[in-house]
Amino acid sequence: MKKFIIKSNELVKDNHVTIDVEDLKKYFEDVRAVDGISFQVMKGECFGFLGPNGAGKTTTINILSCYLKPTSGIAKVENFNVETQASEVKKHIGICTQENIFYNELTVYENLIFFGKMYTIDSKILKSRVIELIKKVGLEKKRKTKAEKLSGGMKRRLNLIIGLVHDPDILFLDEPTAGLDPQSRRMLWDYIFELKSRNKTIFLTTHYMDEADILSDRLAIIDHGKIIAEGTPEHLKETIGKGDLLTFKTEGPKEKLLESINEIKTFDFVLDANYIEEEMITRISAMDGLGKVGKIIKRFSSNDLQVIDVGVQRNSLENVFLTLTGRSLRV
Ligand SMILES: Nc1ncnc2c1ncn2[C@@H]1O[C@H](COP(=O)(O)OP(=O)(O)O)[C@@H](O)[C@H]1O
Ligand SMILES: [Mg+2]
């Protein structure tokens, strides 16, 4: 398996580093939840953190938001150290946690006021901000509804705006749309776009590649606590996924198949080719893969193999993940 580390050199929005992480590690006994990650997030950008369940996304957010001490490494938010200057860091950040944190028995409005009061905000300003936030995410009609009575999508929207009552510049959104219906996802995306347009810095974790693709200016792909690729979505897809992902199901002797795969690997348009034992398919990532299907079938045939099924997947972040890890991101 070829391994790529991609660092995009593309210009970012602003030169101001908002989040600065250097060789960060968090071990829970023998579990290396975060295993030496380094990255920077610039002011006003949405930085996506894309990875499967258990990759280390929430652990990273918990460290950056001062809930968890790292095992080693340095993390700074607005140049304040998250371990030693937590109270300064907390002034700048808002969090939408992976699990909803509100009180079920309080109404939407009461929850927001309750969490707002944890900060020193003038009560008039807080009230008008709460009303505005409720409006922004379309919960006006639910203002007086107890949180427990809201739908899943509404609960996520409430959880998101709870993290915004103190109008922070930097937002940590931990899987904000996980498990939501498409309409609620779309509504949350629209609101995240609006926050971006107001120059908020957003650190977004997700295991949905479409979400990472649409919302992130840059993203890092994290797996087993390590960053395995980083760059703009376009850059990542171009570098690896310019090739399409092809799958072939063949009939014929196994030795012949492995021999063919080795030959196919030498084709200049082929990035990688592997036999996937469990699925009994050959997976090939290739530049202009669609246009090269015929050539590949010809090679299989010349080795006495019959191609009985062909699959083509267009260029996507899913391909990037597959190419890097040999696994699907779908969890
Ligand atoms: N408090 C903890 N104690 C032990 N292991 C933990 C703890 N928190 C997270 N982990 C483990 O660390 C790894 C990363 O978890 P997490 O950061 O929650 O991943 P993600 O948010 O990407 O799904 C997982 O293997 C998880 O089981
Ligand atoms: Mg998580």
Number of strands: 14
Rounded mean pLDDT is 90
Q: Kindly name the structural category.
A: alpha/beta
CATH-defined architecture of the largest domain:
3-Layer(aba) Sandwich
* Shape call: elongated
Low-confidence stretches: 1-13
How many separate domains make up the residues? 2
The major beta sheet can be summarized as: 6 strands, mixed
CATH superfamily of the largest domain: P-loop containing nucleotide triphosphate hydrolases
Q: Can you write the helix and strand succession as a string?
A: EEEHEEHEHHHEHEHEEHEHEEHEH
What proportion strand?
A: 25-35%
Supply the CATH class of the largest domain. Answer: Alpha Beta
Q: Taking strands numbered 1, 2, ... along the chain, how are they ordered across the largest sheet? A: 6-7-8-3-9-10
Which small-molecule ligands are present, each listed once? adenosine-5'-diphosphate, magnesium ion
In the CATH hierarchy, the third-tier topology of the largest domain is known as: Rossmann fold
Q: Approximately how much helix is present in the residues?
A: 25-40%
Number of helices: 11
| Rg, Cα atoms, Å | 23 Å
Distance between the termini: 22 Å
Descriptive keywords:
11 helices, binds adenosine-5'-diphosphate, Alpha-Beta Plaits, 14 strands, 29% strand, 2 domains, alpha/beta, 34% helix, 331 residues, binds magnesium ion, Rossmann fold, disordered N terminus
Could you characterize what this model shows?
- The protein is α/β, with parallel strands linked by helices.
- The strands form three sheets. A six-stranded mixed sheet has the order 6-7-8-3-9-10, sandwiched between helices.
- It contains eleven helices and 14 strands.
- The longest helix is centred in the middle third of the chain and has 16 residues.
- The chain is elongated, with a radius of gyration of 23 Å.
- It has two domains: 222 residues, P-loop containing nucleotide triphosphate hydrolases (Rossmann fold), CATH 3.40.50; 72 residues, Alpha-Beta Plaits.
- A hairpin with a 4-residue loop joins strand 12 and strand 13.
- It binds adenosine-5'-diphosphate and magnesium ion.
- Magnesium ion binds next to helix 1.
